[in-house]
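Justification of resources, computational component.

The compute hours requested in this renewal are based largely on the per-chain cost of generating structure records like the one below. Each record pairs the submitted sequence with a full structure-token output. That output is archived, and it is also reused by downstream analysis tasks.
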Amino acid sequence: MNNIYTPQQQRILLIASLIIIAGFILFGLSGYISAFLGAGILYVVFRPWFTALAIKRNWNRSLVTTLLIIFSVVVIIMPFLTLSLLLIDRIQYYSQHTEDILNLVKKAEELTGYKITSQQNVQTILRQGGTYASRILPSIAGGALDFIVILGLMFFTLYFMFVQQESFQKGLQKYLPFKRDTQKELGESLKNNVNANVLGQALVSLVQGVLTGATLWIFGVPDALFWGTVAFFMAFIPVLGTPLVWGPAGLIQLSQGNTGQGAGILLVGVIVIINIDNLLRIMLAKRMGDIHPLVTLAGIVLGVPIFGILGLVVGPLLLSYFIVLIDVFERENKKQEKEVALAQEQVEVAAEQGKK
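The structure output for this chain reads:
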């Protein structure tokens, strides 16, 4: 019995079926997309280690992968989770005890002589900030089961990405709709973004967070550990970063009459913390991927509301991929135009020779 569809219709229906099924799969896994993104990021971070141990020294792949997973849990996941929970707890505290912030606002108004905002607006902003922070930062209290499932799925995916690395890479090369040169450019962009926004930026943020917390502690600011933790997260934002922490802290000290402490915080922030940031970024840019600050800033604004804390990496990566694909599109168009012009020139030469 003959099929009622033509070969072209069959091809169109096949593509449509694949798109529909893929849409259902993505919709079903949308709540756990961060697990696959996290696995990809950790794969890029740990791949040099895996290559050095499992490929060059012929260590057992399963053993190396298991050790890398344990290392990531102890060194990355647990400290980051602890910092996140600490930050969420204090933000929620301040959002529920707004009188502390309102007193600071009043003192700032008395110092400057300007009405900053109404008390009701400050309370609303604080409550919204607590809710937003709880949403973008990982929290066991907010959903223990989902958190465990995401971690398990992330490490399960990472395990097979390493153990079956060759099959994984061949699958990407086979099914990605790009030429080999484009795939290499995308891979290099991924490597640069992860190096710059995970390894490099995490190191810069850690140094700035420690310096900010230590500065506030030396000059007698309450909750220096908390504000140092806030500075760690804020340091991921280019340009603004830690000045959003030590700047207000210094101004608050000045408003309270603590001139020496306030001036000291501001001087250390301007002279030490900002310059350390610039120096580290210059040193790490050549080794860990040089990403333009505008791409990073716009990517963070784009990525964090969609992907949560992973948006710090995924957002700039999406913008970098967009720029790479635009360059590839432009290059392919120019190449095609040259091929068309060359073919047309050959036709004209053949026509002239035919006339002769």
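Residues 311-355 form the longest helix (45 residues). Residues 14-175 form one domain.
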